[in-house]
Design goal:
The protein is α/β, with parallel strands linked by helices. The chain is built from 2 helices and 5 strands; from the N terminus they run E-E-E-H-E-H-E. Strands 3-4-5 form a 3-stranded parallel sheet. The protein is flat.
């Protein structure tokens, strides 16, 4: 098992993947629901790299525009967004 721990904005988390899931011949599309801090996507990419597979691209359903401005500065970075929202549009449940 390959694993990685990483920090989130309000805590920490971890990811695990079985050692024989990916090979050096594999290309992987990383898909995450919300890109806020980038921690989960970065950890996923780290595990994929560790296993020797190629990261084809990263895609996100929603991204917060603060981080997106940084990512979009590198036009050909293989990062795709379906919807962009500003942090002021994000409402947390009580």
């Amino acid at each position: 098992m390959h694993s990685i721990s990483y920090d989130l904005e309000y805590g920490s988390a971890g990811l695990e993947v079985h050692v024989d899931v990916l090979t050096a011949d594999d290309r992987v599309l990383v898909i995450d629901d919300v890109l806020a801090t980038g921690g989960t996507a970065a950890a996923s990419c780290h595990l994929i790299d560790k296993m020797g597979a190629e990261i084809a691209a990263c895609a996100f359903d929603v991204e917060l525009d603060t981080l997106a401005r940084i990512l979009h500065e590198n036009a050909d970075n293989g990062v795709y967004f379906i919807k962009s929202v500003s942090e002021s549009q994000v409402r947390l449940a009580p």
